[in-house]
């Protein structure tokens, strides 16, 4: 898999550009998942989000997800772009595009990709609400990162 199919960017994402990466004559289906910043989360009004990533590892993990999809659905081609930095309400945070000869594969592989992103890609976010801010931690929201990033081995961020 070529790295250009899997990117971390600070720039706004074009869903069309990501989808164009997987377009091909053999594809009878292209699915696109477009993850955007929503205004309300668990009843709290979000003003904006801030995403950070360990970029080299994040790209490697996106590539790994692409390889997993290729192994599980050999006819599928995947492209994923995730944005970092400050994102406003309705900004696109992530685009996943999958093409395949048949729609069921494209749907399944696309859903698989977003779930795996949340499980293994080192991206974390800070929510800015009307009444304060909080580093959410990992994308499954199971491990808090109060200092804004994962703790290094040994328990410090030094």
UniProtKB/TrEMBL annotation:
Q: Where is this region: Disordered?
A: 138-158
Q: Where is the signal peptide?
A: none
Judged by the first EC level, this protein's enzyme class is: transferase
Pfam families linked to this entry: MoaE
* GO BP, sorted A to Z: Mo-molybdopterin cofactor biosynthetic process
Q: Where is the composition biased (Basic and acidic residues)?
A: 148-158
Q: What does this protein do?
A: Converts molybdopterin precursor Z into molybdopterin. This requires the incorporation of two sulfur atoms into precursor Z to generate a dithiolene group. The sulfur is provided by MoaD.
The family this protein is said to belong to: Belongs to the MoaE family.
Stated name of the protein: Molybdopterin synthase catalytic subunit
Q: Which organism is it from?
A: Metabacillus idriensis
């Amino acid at each position: 898999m070529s790295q250009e199919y899997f990117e971390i960017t600070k720039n706004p994402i074009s869903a069309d550009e990501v989808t164009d990466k997987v377009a091909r004559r053999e594809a009878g289906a292209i699915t696109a998942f477009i993850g955007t910043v929503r205004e309300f989360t668990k009843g709290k009004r979000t003003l904006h989000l801030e995403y950070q990533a360990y970029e080299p590892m994040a790209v490697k993990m996106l590539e790994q997800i692409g390889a997993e999809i290729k192994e599980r659905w050999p006819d599928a081609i995947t492209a994923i772009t995730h944005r970092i930095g400050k994102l406003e309400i309705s900004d696109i945070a992530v685009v996943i595009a999958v093409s395949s000869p048949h729609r069921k594969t494209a749907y399944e592989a696309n859903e698989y990709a977003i779930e795996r992103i949340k499980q293994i890609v080192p991206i974390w976010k800070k929510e800015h609400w009307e009444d304060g801010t909080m580093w959410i931690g990992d994308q499954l929201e199971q491990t808090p990162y109060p200092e804004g990033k994962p703790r290094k081995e040994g328990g410090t961020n030094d």
